[in-house]
Design a protein that fits this description.
- Helix 1 packs across helix 7, helix 3 packs parallel to helix 4 and helix 4 runs parallel beside helix 5.
- The chain is built from seven helices and seven strands, in the order βαβαβαβαβαβααβ.
- The protein is an alpha/beta fold and about 240 residues long.
- It starts with 7 loop residues before the first strand and ends in a 6-residue tail after the last strand.
Length: about 240
């Protein structure tokens, strides 16, 4: 089953940024969506917007740090639509900081959302995909997993962990399942809002906004990945980004 029209797609982190843009684009191309995020008001508004434009969407408050929430989202999608074709694991946070600030709680949060959340998604969707003999994981990684820079070590570690798990899953998946990684570079989202470090916040203006991609750019990569008949690994970054 190739293409997008008619596919059932669950998206985590759907309340804003890449998740929101992906939901809107996929809905416009005929996907049936199950949207998950922690901000229920934003989810409801997004779902209503999709339906007003003729699309199909259900939504459920989802904290990817809790395994049960991912299980509930997948079960909800299957219950409403009878199947699940794609899980887009997009939820992520980036409270970047230098090691010397010892922001251990922020480290734990990144591990919980960025890495453990992906594992919880795999645990929820893999049995469904095996039973169907079809399914695709689309894991949103980051160019931070390709190039390590100061203040991003823990964030990069979580993204490298997702890359490792995704590659291992791809090798174990067999011919019926697909695993795709998408690695965005700078994207203009609410990502920076999670930064608590004064050091990093003071450096933020140094990042030229003209370097940033839009969430729509990454949404098109997500759609491209779903449309392909075979596994694709995708890096998407601004042409001016090192």
């Amino acid at each position: 089953m190739t293409g997008i029209d008619g596919k059932v797609v669950a998206i985590t982190g759907a309340a804003s940024g890449i998740g929101e843009a992906s939901a809107l684009l996929l809905a416009s191309r005929g996907a049936k969506l199950a949207l998950g995020a922690r901000r229920s008001d934003r989810l409801e508004a997004l779902g209503a917007r999709i339906e007003a434009n003729g699309g199909t969407a259900v939504w459920k408050t989802t904290d990817v740090r809790r395994r049960g929430d991912l299980a509930d989202l997948v079960a909800y999608a299957c219950g409403r639509y009878g199947a699940l074709d794609v899980l887009v694991s997009n939820a992520g946070i980036g409270p970047l900081s230098p090691f010397d600030e010892l922001r251990v709680e922020d480290w734990d949060q990144m591990i919980g959302v960025n890495f453990r959340g992906v594992l919880h998604g795999i645990a929820a969707a893999l049995p469904v995909f095996r039973k169907q003999s079809r399914g695709q994981f689309v894991n949103v990684v980051s160019t931070a997993g390709l190039r390590i820079v100061p203040n991003q070590a823990v964030y990069a570690a979580t993204k490298n962990a997702v890359r490792t798990v995704s590659e291992g899953l791809r090798q174990e998946a067999g011919p019926d399942l697909r695993v795709t990684m998408i690695s965005p570079g700078y994207v203009a989202t609410e990502f920076a809002d999670s930064v608590t470090s004064p050091t990093v916040k003071s450096q933020a203006p140094a990042v030229d906004s003209s370097l940033s991609l839009s969430p729509d750019d990454i949404a098109r990569a997500v759609a491209f990945a779903i449309e392909q008949p075979s596994n694709v690994d995708i890096v998407v970054r601004p042409t001016a980004q090192n």
